[in-house]
Design goal:
- The protein is low in regular secondary structure.
- It is built from no helices and four strands.
- It starts with 48 loop residues before the first strand and ends in a 7-residue tail after the last strand.
């Protein structure tokens, strides 16, 4: 599945759900929508592997945005 790399993406995942995607290039970015509730704490886990040549990618979250594109605070201190 190719996910749009902009705020116009319609790809979504539910809290507690999962999503599988394919990165087309090493610089590929995917924007994924999720509905969160203010005041709650969420943990987002990313796992990625290129099984065609047994290499492992190190995916990162570059930001969490509001629906309008405003960046929220992000802590990546847990791993």
């Amino acid at each position: 599945m190719d996910i749009l790399g902009s705020i116009n993406s319609t790809t979504s995942v539910s809290v507690g759900g999962s999503l599988t995607s394919t990165f087309e290039t090493g610089a590929d970015k995917d924007y994924i929508r999720v509905t969160l509730v203010a005041g709650r704490t969420y943990r987002i886990d990313l796992k990625a592997a290129d099984l065609t040549n047994n290499s492992i990618f190190d995916p990162i979250i570059e930001g969490i945005l509001t629906a309008s594109g405003t960046s929220l605070n992000l802590s990546d201190d847990d791993g």
